[in-house]
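Bumping my old thread because nobody answered last time. Still need a sequence for this structure:
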């Protein structure tokens, strides 16, 4: 009992644990390779184990005082759990493990949301602001390491693959990471598990280098970081991230030079892009137009998605499936080999089709509503948006929804949760524009 009381005197324990976890997130690919080389598959679930521990620590240190901000994530957690139990009762018991495996991707991030809100709610306004500024510098530093790794891998691909004993296209089950090539060129993964993860991470860091530039004293360093992340995005060859760069600067133009019409302009931009991506993933017309210029890119980025979307939507052959999905964990090809359970899974490479397959259109529209609500709120409390999270959510909502897993894309989902939680908690604590400006160098 005395030992427990001494532990609770270290009130910064949850904050320290969170920082350690965030640092490890920037080396997920390194941990993946280590898991394969050391033949320790248990390392593959390090992040899930850490989040559960972080959740327990945050709950213990909250001492029963919780923020009303956790109501929504807790409600989602309960809804997913009830849905999972219902699914287990509906299908054969042989598929129960698949459902439990699927929950790893859905429940764990929600636990992290609750943990983060509990940790931030215990901090004072000044403590949270100080934590945020330190986190900005930490993320930019670790992001720079990832950017350098991305660029070096692109410049010296043979040396990189030889160092790890990898071949292009090798999957994580053998090597710990997923390495792909396109038109003979490596798709650099940096220190992450795949090029999609590194591409979005570099985009987030580039946006951070601009939005948080006021917290960096050296103008040279700000310019250097921006250029480093920009070059790294190109080196990942991830077109979704490259589109994200262009859309970010378009949105930024209206915010900076036409603020009076920025909100309506950003809404129109988002709506046009979203509708175009809906069309491009449900009809082959866009693919037919793009393949004239680049057959390989059109096939990989558009054709396969349309094909997968059509297959999954066609499997929704009843009203129940349309509303609640084809079956929890039935589709999705990364990770668990579902052929061992007699299931021929279809890839779910976007948040849209992932949600429709697992939770139906009810789940998809709940997700969409939550993202839209967060987006509107972040623009409304822009003064407290330390990290520029409104731009990251805009990318997740408008661009990633139909072309990436978004909130299911580790470690970017973890960073996004932290970046979004901070302004909401700061606003509740009465944070003003002047409070944030006190930490600025300009």
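Sorry it took so long. Here it is:
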């Amino acid at each position: 009992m005395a030992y427990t009381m001494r532990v609770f005197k270290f009130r910064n324990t949850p904050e320290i644990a969170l920082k350690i976890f965030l640092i490890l997130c920037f080396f997920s690919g390194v941990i993946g390779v280590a898991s394969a080389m050391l033949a320790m598959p248990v390392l593959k679930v390090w992040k899930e184990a850490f989040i559960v521990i972080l959740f327990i620590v945050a709950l213990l240190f909250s001492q029963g005082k919780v923020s009303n901000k956790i109501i929504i994530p807790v409600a989602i957690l309960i809804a997913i759990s009830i849905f999972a139990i219902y699914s287990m009762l509906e299908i054969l018991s042989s598929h129960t493990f698949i459902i439990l495996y699927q929950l790893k991707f859905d429940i764990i991030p929600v636990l992290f949301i609750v943990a983060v809100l509990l940790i931030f709610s215990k901090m004072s306004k000044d403590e949270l602001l100080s934590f945020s500024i330190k986190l900005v510098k930490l993320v930019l530093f670790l992001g720079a390491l990832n950017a350098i790794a991305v660029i070096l891998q692109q410049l010296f691909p043979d040396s990189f693959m030889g160092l790890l004993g990898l071949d292009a296209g090798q999957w994580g089950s053998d090597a710990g990471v997923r390495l792909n090539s396109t038109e003979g060129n490596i798709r650099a993964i940096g220190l992450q598990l795949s090029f999609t993860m590194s591409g979005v991470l570099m985009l987030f860091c580039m946006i951070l280098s601009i939005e948080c530039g006021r917290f960096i004293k050296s103008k040279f360093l700000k310019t250097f970081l921006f250029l480093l992340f920009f070059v790294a995005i190109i080196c990942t060859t991830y077109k979704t991230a490259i589109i994200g760069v262009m859309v970010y600067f378009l949105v930024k133009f209206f915010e900076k030079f036409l603020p009076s019409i920025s909100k309506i302009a950003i809404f129109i931009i988002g709506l046009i892009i979203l509708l175009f991506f809906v069309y491009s993933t449900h009809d082959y017309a866009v693919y037919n137009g793009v393949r004239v210029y680049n057959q390989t890119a059109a096939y990989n980025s558009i054709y396969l998605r349309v094909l997968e979307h059509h297959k999954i939507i066609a499997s929704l052959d009843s009203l129940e499936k349309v509303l609640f999905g084809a079956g929890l964990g039935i589709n999705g090809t990364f990770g668990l080999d579902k052929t061992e359970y007699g299931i021929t899974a279809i890839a779910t490479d976007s948040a849209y089709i992932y949600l429709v397959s697992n939770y139906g259109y009810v789940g998809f529209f709940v997700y969409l509503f939550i993202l839209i609500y967060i987006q509107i709120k972040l623009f409304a409390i822009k003064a407290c948006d330390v990290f520029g999270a409104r731009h990251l959510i805009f990318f997740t909502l408008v661009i990633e929804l139909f072309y990436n897993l978004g909130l299911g894309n580790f470690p970017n989902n973890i960073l996004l949760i932290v970046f979004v939680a901070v302004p909401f908690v700061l606003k509740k604590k009465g944070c003003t524009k002047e409070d944030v400006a006190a930490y600025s160098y300009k």
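The chain is about 70% helix and 0% strand. Let me know if any region looks off to you.
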